[in-house]
Amino acid sequence: MYANIINALGFKKVFVLDAHSEVTPALVDYCEVIPNYEFISETIKCIGKPVVLVSPDGGALKRSTNCRSI
Known about the structure:
By secondary structure, the chain is of the alpha+beta class. Helix content is 46%, strand content 11%. It has a two-stranded parallel ribbon. It is elongated, with a radius of gyration of 15 Å.
């Protein structure tokens, strides 16, 4: 239902952060998924000082750090 609403708005590009599923980009037109680790990396650069990341579980940690072996 939400994909239909977003598509009906006629955006030229839709940015999605942490889609959780491959279904989202399949249903939303002109969808560009921004991986968590890219968003976090850019945010840390803007903060400009040491940062501590806290994740609720292993899956979130893997998405946040782009690490596949944690």
